[in-house]
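Appendix B. Chain record.
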Amino acid sequence: MHRHTIPLVTAVLLYLATAVACGGGGGGGTPPSSPPTDLQYAQDVIAYREGAAITPNTATVGGGAPTSFTSIPPLPAGLSLDQTTGAISGTPTTEGPATQHVITAANADGQTSDNVTIAIWAGPFEVVAAGFTVETVHENPAMTPVKHGKVVAAPAGDGRVFFTEVDTGNVRVIDPANGGLQAAPFATISVLTGGHNGLLGLCLAPDFDTSLTPYVYVLACVAGIGPTVDRMQIRRYTAVGNVGTNETIVLDNLPIAPSGNAINNGGEICFDLNGNLFVSIGDVNNASNADADTSVSLAGKVLRYNVSVIPAVAATGNPTADDPEWCRGLRNTFGLAVHPTAGGLYGGDNGPAANDEFNELQPGKHFEWGGTPPPIDVGNRIKNWPSVIVPTGLCWHDGTGWGAEFVDDLFFCSYDDHLIRRFEMSGINPNPSDIDNETEFAQLEDIAGRNHPLAICLAPDGSLYVATFTGIYRIRKM
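Structure tokens predicted for this chain:
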């Protein structure tokens, strides 16, 4: 009898063919499947405008392909979940508070989830005084917090608005005559971020519209390089159209709060009626600075400089010759405003857990933070709030476009309660110092903690521009 032999390769192929035909010995014949994993939405916290179609919030998911997407609780009315991709899209129809939604992607083998918080708002303002309306000048998509800082309207009335982005270090321009928000920043500074750092102050030279050198000034928190230390600087740019050129450091080595405790940097700048520059610097997280002489620390004070020379020097007429100090004893004055005719300086100071203030910042005075001055040296505290409101921006109105009843009115922003207050002021001696009447001029809507009033300024036509973390808005008379 002859024995037939099968080559080894042939034997292996026959075995594999048999194994496949028989299900590999495991039974069933269906390859193993897997559940979806790692669901991630492009935006986890979003605020949408009621009645406006949204940019879809896309999802990324790993593992096995989902066969369904669900939301608990259901998405706001008008929004839907794509059952293939998980994208959230649509047009929200009903205003609602910030609500966390658990979005789940699932298939027959398992599921995975991500949390998405969604708020639907009707507009940036809940209430504005009768006879006035609010217009959106610029708004970040889906209310993403770029953190706007200051806003300034160009004084010539050409419609331009300058504003800062705190953490990007960008100065931006909105120019209605050239397409609105300019794509390229006016200027960009590399800034320290976190806490009260960033690009803080912004103002235009008093002769911005008539001078051959239209200057824009900014105050920035910058990092030390080599032997230099972290500090605040004032930089000046020459505006050529909507582009900042000829960057010049006007003041350097202004104090800043230490890394890790970066609070109370202050950071406002504005011009007086004589063309000198006021600078507010907080106590940089050390109360004793506010009572110290400027030879020890410039912090906790308002300073006044002549910026017509570089580097800037103490302005003529300061309480002490050749000393930049204007007044002291301040914890964190975030906003400043000069009366348009009398020239007095005003600010809002932030207390630690009480006693926020509206102050007339007179020269040579002490506002009692960080020390106990003689009574004769105490500055004029026009209003004190026992509970925290967090004063931010303020500005005077001169009645232009709004009528004589708005002359000598001061508009005052409070961060915590989302209010713009109107103070009808009198008592010229030589500056207004009495509040005759106080009203809540506007109430901003609280949207996921992002719609706080940060800064306010007067436009040439009498409108008020208001900056929040996520938008620039214009209040005008109807």
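Further analysis of this model is presented in Appendix C.
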